[in-house]
Automatic annotation (TrEMBL):
This is ABC-2 type transport system permease protein. It comes from the Bacteria. Coiled coil: none annotated. Keywords: Membrane, Transmembrane, Transmembrane helix. The chain crosses the membrane at residues 12-33, 45-64, 85-106, 126-146, 153-175, 236-258, 304-322, 328-346, 376-396, 402-424, 458-477, 483-503. It comes from Pseudolysinimonas yzui.
């Protein structure tokens, strides 16, 4: 009763009772009208309406439930056995709005005569039992969705669409009969409605809906009236299976609600920053979490990502001005994007750490853990870029046979870029923009600016991809042979070799010169 003390709760409850009563009256009047329909139309209307009613037994509690009237754990504290708790909770379900299932299940009885009446009478308690379990599951899920408003809003919108569509299908089948009962003066207007709803009377739509498991008990009397005993048995078997599935789901939800809370593992501290909470508590995970955080929050890294979408546009525009054929120009943007992603900041990643480099020295982080952790964000972004970019490039090129070659070149640049950058950042760091400075602000330090190191690292990456690029060019020149597959093989093979060698050599260089790297990063 405490729920009714919430302002407006009693008004909404009263409105719900009135609407439910009006719905029952409308359903019974509609059942009386459906008795005038032909056998096929009556079958479709009854089964679709019944399936919507059974679905509503689940969806309505799912949408409106805010909490469970009697939580199973409340009875668990008094020493009740699980079976007794299950029975008590199900009884409380019948006390509430689920009691309306009884008049809903009884409504079709006025449609049938002869043996079909007995079948419909047998189906009534089964429909109610099915609805009670569905309602119970809906309440449990609805109480959980209260804490997930976005998912709840999506489910509400989907439920409204389903019920509106089902109601329109029922009205479409009833419209011709209703039109005959109206005065002749209304026929011109009603005819427009009947014609507009005609597509919804398509047998394929109705037959699909009437075959759903939720309508099994509702269609059994119709099959009995048609004299098809085999289908009646099949309907009751399918309905019983549906109830069994609902019972199993309910038992599973009850067991979950009654689980001992002492067995629930405690979550990691909520104060742990985002990526450190998502990745494992290992040296590689710690370095990777810090690198992911850099890419997500550091302007120096985000600027590199912001430039990537503009690369294809600028490249294609420049080649169009230069008069290069479009089919050739489309092959260039993907390698450039992958090159900038794999090389952009990773080749000087140590210098970007600045004074934070001391944390790894204090933790005695091994070089191989550092190299792998730093390259994981680039690999995580680069793999989707290569996969999606290969498909788009082949589509824009107009020949899907080029796809293996494009993939080989892009993979060689991605893996080769990571491998070369892993060596360069440990052996040849150069002054980088300090944390907090503008991304394009150049550090004011004497000596070389690092342009030679940048140029040299790009050349090394292109050398790794050179065999795949050469095979692709030979294919484009029209030379017979499996050049695209050769480009794929050498691109992936040489890329993996450069990747593994770069991680190994870069790790050894990092272990050998960690103090010097810390001194350099702190000064620059």
């Amino acid at each position: 009763m405490n729920a009714f003390r919430v302002p407006g709760a009693a008004k909404w409850a009263a409105l719900g009772v009135v609407l439910a009563g009006a719905g029952i009256v409308l359903l019974w009047n509609g059942a009386a009208l459906a008795s005038e329909l032909d056998a096929v139309t009556r079958h479709r209307v009854v089964v679709v309406a019944g399936a919507l009613a059974s679905l509503g037994a689940f969806v309505i509690p799912l949408v409106i439930a805010r909490s469970q009237l009697l939580h199973p754990r409340a009875l668990w504290l008094f020493g009740f056995r699980p079976l007794s708790i299950a029975g008590a909770v199900l009884l409380t379900t019948l006390v509430g709005p689920a009691l309306l299932l009884v008049p809903v299940a009884l409504a079709p009885l006025q449609l049938w005569t002869g043996p079909a009446v007995a079948t419909a009478t047998l189906a009534v308690p089964l429909i109610v039992i099915e609805g009670v379990f569905a309602a119970r599951i809906g309440v449990v899920i609805g109480s959980v969705l209260l804490h997930r408003p976005r998912v709840g809003a999506l489910i509400r919108a989907l439920a409204v669409l389903i019920f509106v569509a089902g109601a329109l299908i029922i009205v479409a089948h009833l419209a011709p009969t209703l039109a005959e009962l109206l005065p002749a003066a209304w026929w011109p207007t009603v005819l427009v409605v009947v014609v507009a709803l005609a597509p919804l009377r398509d047998p394929a739509i109705a037959d699909t809906l009437t075959a759903l498991p939720l309508g099994a008990f509702w269609r059994a009397p119709s099959h009995q009236a048609a004299g098809d005993a085999a289908l009646v048995s099949q309907d009751f078997a399918l309905g019983a299976l549906t109830i069994a599935v609902l019972v199993l789901i309910w038992i599973a939800s009850l067991a979950y609600q009654l689980r001992p809370t002492r067995r629930i593992p405690r979550e990691r501290a909520a104060l742990v920053p985002g990526w450190f909470r998502r990745l494992p508590s290992t040296p590689v995970g710690a370095v990777a979490a810090r690198s992911f955080t850099y890419w997500a929050r550091d302007p120096r890294y985000r600027t590199a990502l912001a430039v990537l979408p503009a690369v294809p546009v600028v490249t294609l525009l420049a080649m169009w001005i230069a008069g290069i054929p479009f089919s050739i120009a489309t092959l260039v943007p993907l390698p450039l994007v992958v090159l900038l992603l794999a090389w952009g900041t990773l080749h000087n990643d140590v210098a970007y750490d600045s004074t934070a480099m001391w944390t790894q020295l204090a933790a005695h982080t091994r070089g191989v853990d550092d190299r792998i952790g730093r390259m994981l964000p680039v690999l995580a972004m680069g793999v989707p870029v290569v996969l999606v970019g290969t498909v788009l490039t082949a589509w824009a090129h107009g020949d899907w046979m080029i796809a293996p070659a494009v993939f080989g070149v892009a993979t060689a640049i991605l893996l080769g870029g990571i491998g070369v950058s892993s060596v360069i950042s440990a052996n040849h760091p150069y002054p980088a923009t300090r944390p907090g400075d503008a991304p394009f602000q150049q550090p004011q330090v004497p000596g070389a600016s690092g342009s030679g190191i940048q140029f040299g690292s790009i050349v090394l990456i292109l050398l790794v991809a050179a065999p795949a690029i050469t095979a692709t060019v030979v294919h484009l020149l029209g030379v017979p042979g499996p050049w695209v597959w050769l480009a794929l093989a050498v691109g992936v093979g040489v890329g993996l070799l450069a990747f593994a060698s770069g991680i190994r050599v870069g790790a050894a260089a990092y272990d050998r010169s960690t103090p010097e790297l810390l001194d350099f990063a702190a000064r620059h």
